[in-house]
Specification:
The complex is a heterodimer of chains A (475) and B (418). Chain A is of the alpha+beta class and 475 residues long. Chain A has helices at residues 2-34, 36-40, 47-54, 90-93, 104-108, 110-113, 124-130, 144-154, 185-194, 203-206, 216-225, 262-268, 271-292, 318-325, 335-346, 382-398, 452-474; strands at 60-61, 67-73, 79-82, 96-97, 101-102, 137-140, 159-165, 171-177, 235-237, 240-244, 247-250, 258-260, 350-352, 357-361, 367-370, 375-378, 410-420, 423-434, 439-446. Chain A contains 17 helices and 19 strands. Classes of the chains: A alpha+beta (475), B mainly alpha (418).
Chain lengths: 475, 418
């Protein structure tokens, strides 16, 4: 009998232990099924990074197939990332670092470049069958030659140039200076983040500037749309506009433009006319116009943007409304948004969604993903777009933007000289050009350099002339 | 024709050969021929042992040796994959373990003689454990090692076996006294103090290990073995309550007194509050489980090297990462099968001491596997202890094979009938 008792106790003990194992199996199942993704994708989990070290990261190509970034095996057996164009392409490529994370296309397209976006990547042994030790290539819309032209045209000055295809939204060049060398970004990191020049800032999409007079084509469009004026009305510019007892708006250099219609006002960039139009439009129409041209809408793709700063329209005083009309007040925009504004008038009123990634190509050469051209906004009507475009043509042929005039090429533009808190005025030039091969829109800003007509417009000319040369060479 | 014994060895040998092939082909064109001779030695040794035992002990349990070889093979290929430098040493240990197993089962006909030496065995156990208090060396945060020339021995791995043998003899001898309490105190009937003194001594030792050596895993294991064996022998729940009371009190006291205990508990309760510091190892282990998911990353395609000490205490996390849920649950089931066979052997024994011995050995295996697996999954606080047959380490491998040998002898008819 006693023997029986011992065996019964042993049975109970065994059942207890087996129950413990059952709980253990349930808990492991919970970890590996329900919590699996959360644990695998936890930012502290270094596995993704380790995996990337052992596979050859895909190449970043420009639209002509030139390598912007590629990986090569070094002595240690690991791969090393090379950026042949160093700081020229840094605003586009971004960077990649073990301790500093990643940015730009390296960051946005990380999964594709490291081959981890494959649908079978979470299927263990099966994944190993299909996996390649090479990531996917990413082909960009950038043209290295145009990028180089823009980069050289900017010279050593601080500023940004962006060139987009008006008909597709493809970004052809995106230059920001001063920049950084992504080849040595990890070593230079301490100095880079200390530097006050904003080396890591991609001025094209993250630099916020007052648009100044480059905003006037949009105000002109709004004035025509809301019918607060027409093309025939004559404005009388006395060189100043007394808004009320405490505030008088002056023309720059106290110029007196005399009698001008809308077209002439834009051509000479008449502040009093546009301040008058802004007052006639009122705060709610101004707010609607900014919305119409996409300033309140995010692009939401591979382009990392700083949010556009707009004033609280309902709280604006009369003086401030006038300031908004000439692109000052608290309006802060990015060069990319101004190029998009210019493209609306070059593309029948439509703004195409800007993009950088054209194709994602698997190691075996199969195109996994291809960007579609998307109409982002119908900002204005084709009719009004063509009117404004005509005004902007006149700016280049007869007006403040004459320095951008290129014989035989239809160039439209608008200069801007933006007052700002950081010192001398920023020189702006935005516009579009019908090149033989493609229609381009662009925005150029040179920080603290002075007048847009004298500083920024000549760069547009240089850009267009050199693009024509390379197009000829290519054809 | 292969007999059942040999047939059961085939999966483990397949694992061993294929696993080694996967790793070695990855190193091609470097071919390590000596490695293959070692692998062959294990295979030949395993089949010889199985073949000889089939003949000489045909009535014994045919499953436990192949099960141990299965677990050993998984351990070997994981160690080859995780710490290639430790692969050959681990092969040595498994070969020595197999030899010791064979020696025990071939030359020992009957283990009833152990009863006569119970106090000697108890004394040995005490000596082994106390040795570390005096000449112990701290390795990996626990002072539970003795360094003998080129070898590092973990005496607690062997003391564990002595304590089970001692307890099974002692408890059966004194069962009547122990199970017939005489004094009523605090609502429970307590046996005379001198009979429970050895039990209190073991618990005391466990607490000392806990405190002095910071070896929480072994302490928990010894404590658990003592509770289970006392309960199994006497069926008296007083001991269980007494032990739990004792456990809770000592836990509270050590939590209050010792920083390392508080740290362990804090890591267990809030691993995510310090994921790069104190809880680094546990958090890395959880990442391994998560990254493995259901299918695993595939053998040799994961990154278990991110977990510190992955080849010893955390080897199961590496299995979970590379073989996934579909690979690690079967490993647990194989352990459960081994423990089930052990319990079955125990239930088939006639002699009370043998019954208790087999049950004690099986429960000790179960406890050890559960403590470490619950630790690496954060089901329970982590306590460093090896995974039998799989973790790297000579002491662990040897003691596991000794336990296996004892279970094998107990499964022979002449023992179960005696």
């Amino acid at each position: 009998m006693r023997d029986r008792n011992i065996k019964k106790n042993i049975m109970y003990s065994a059942i207890f232990m087996f129950s413990c194992f059952f709980i253990l199996v349930v808990y492991i199942t919970y970890l590996q099924v329900l919590k699996s993704n959360a644990l695998a994708n936890n930012p502290l989990n270094m596995r993704a990074f380790q995996m990337e070290k052992n596979i050859q990261r895909g190449t970043m190509l420009d639209r002509t197939g030139k390598k912007i970034a590629f990986s090569e095996r070094i002595k240690t057996g690991f791969y090393h990332r090379v950026y042949p164009y160093a700081d020229m392409m840094a605003p586009v490529s971004g960077y990649l670092g073990e301790n500093i994370g990643n940015a730009g296309i390296e960051g946005y397209a990380n999964a594709a470049l490291s081959g981890q976006n494959n649908p079978w990547s979470r299927f263990g042994p099966i994944a190993q069958l299909f996996s390649s030790n090479r990531g996917n290539d990413v082909k960009l819309t950038i043209n290295v030659d145009v990028q180089k032209i823009a980069y050289d045209a900017l010279g050593n000055r601080k500023g940004a140039i962006v060139v987009i295809n008006s008909k597709t939204g493809a970004i052809i060049a995106m230059v920001s200076r001063p920049s950084f060398d992504p080849n040595t970004v990890e070593e230079d990191w301490g100095a880079l983040i200390q530097n006050q020049e904003g080396l890591l800032l991609n001025r094209v999409s993250q630099g916020l500037y007052p648009p100044g007079s480059t905003l006037k084509p949009m105000i002109a469009d709004a004035a025509l749309k809301e019918k607060v004026t027409d093309q025939q009305e004559i404005f009388d510019c006395k060189g100043f506009l007394k808004i009320n007892d405490s505030y008088t708006l002056h023309e720059s250099h106290n110029e007196v433009h005399g009698s001008v219609n809308l077209r002439e006002a834009l051509t000479v960039s008449c502040n009093t006319t546009f301040a008058t139009l802004a007052m006639r439009l009122g705060e709610s129409n101004l707010e609607k116009t900014f919305k119409r041209f996409g300033f309140t809408k995010e692009i939401d793709n591979e382009i990392a943007e700083a949010s556009i700063q707009l004033p609280q329209f309902s709280k604006l005083s009369e003086g401030e409304i006038c300031q908004v009309g000439i692109g000052q007040s608290t309006v802060l925009v990015t060069p990319l948004r101004m190029a998009m504004l210019a493209s609306a008038f070059a593309n029948q009123g439509k703004i195409m969604k800007p993009y950088l990634i054209d194709e994602i190509i698997s190691p075996s050469g199969v195109i996994i993903d291809r960007s579609k051209n998307e109409v982002w906004l119908e900002a204005t009507t084709a009719e009004r777009a063509n009117i404004i475009r005509g005004f902007m043509d006149n700016v280049v042929t007869n007006g403040t933007g004459h320095a951008a005039f290129v014989k035989g090429i239809d160039v439209a533009g608008k200069t801007g000289t933006a007052e700002n808190s950081s010192g001398a005025d920023h020189a702006w030039f935005i516009g579009s050009a019908k090149l033989p091969k493609e229609d381009i829109s662009f925005a150029i800003i040179i920080e603290n350099s002075g007048g847009g007509g004298t500083e920024a417009a000549p760069i547009a000319k240089e850009l267009i002339m050199n693009m024509l040369k390379t197009e000829e060479v290519a054809s | 024709m292969f007999k059942k014994n040999c047939l059961l060895l085939l999966p483990s040998m397949a694992i061993l050969f294929l696993g080694t092939a996967v790793i070695e082909l990855g190193k091609y064109p470097v071919i390590n021929f000596s490695l293959w001779s070692y692998i062959l030695a294990i295979a030949v040794g395993a089949f010889c042992i199985a073949g000889i035992l089939q003949r000489t002990a045909s009535d014994a349990d045919p499953y436990i040796f192949p099960i141990a070889m299965f677990l050993g093979s998984i351990g070997l290929i994981m160690i080859e994959r995780l710490k290639a430098a430790l692969f050959i040493p681990q092969i040595h240990w498994i070969l020595i373990g197999m030899t010791v197993f064979f020696g025990i089962v071939y030359f020992t006909k009957n283990i009833r003689f152990l009863v006569n030496y119970q106090y000697l065995i108890g004394l040995c156990c005490l000596l082994l454990l106390s040795s570390t208090f005096f000449i112990g060396t701290e390795i990996g945060g626990s002072r539970n090692w003795i360094v003998l020339g080129p070898f590092q021995v973990q005496p607690s791995e062997f003391a564990k076996i002595f304590i089970i043998v001692f307890l099974s003899a002692y408890l059966i001898d004194h069962k009547n006294v122990l199970s017939l309490p005489s004094n009523k105190f605090l609502g429970f009937r307590w046996p005379p103090l001198r009979f429970i003194a050895p039990l209190l001594l073991i618990w005391g030792i466990a607490v000392l290990m806990f405190v002095v050596q910071k070896d929480l895993g072994s302490a928990l294991l010894f404590f658990g073995i003592a509770i289970f064996m006392t309960y199994m022998a006497t069926g008296n729940k007083t001991y269980v309550f007494m032990a739990l009371f004792f456990f809770i009190i000592s836990s509270i006291i050590s939590y209050q007194l010792f920083g390392h205990v508080r740290v362990r508990v804090a890591i267990w309760l809030h691993p995510w509050s310090d994921p790069n510091g104190m809880a680094y190892q546990v958090v890395q282990s959880l990442f391994a489980f998560g990254s493995g998911g259901i299918w695993g990353t595939g053998f040799s395609h994961g990154y278990p090297g991110l977990i510190p000490e992955v080849h010893t205490d955390f080897i199961f996390s590496a299995i979970a990462e590379e073989l996934g849920l579909l690979g690690d649950v079967p490993v647990i089931l194989v352990y459960v099968l081994l423990i089930y066979r052990g319990i079955r052997i125990s239930l088939q024994c006639k002699n009370e001491m043998n019954v208790l011995l087999a049950a004690g050995l099986s429960i000790s295996l179960a406890l050890q596997v559960f403590i470490i697996l619950a630790g690496v999954t954060t089901l329970l606080p982590l306590t460093g202890i090896t995974l039998p047959f799989i973790s790297y380490g000579g002491s662990s491998m040897l003691s596991s094979f000794i336990i296996l040998g004892l279970l094998f002898i107990l499964s022979k008819k002449e023992n179960s009938n005696a």
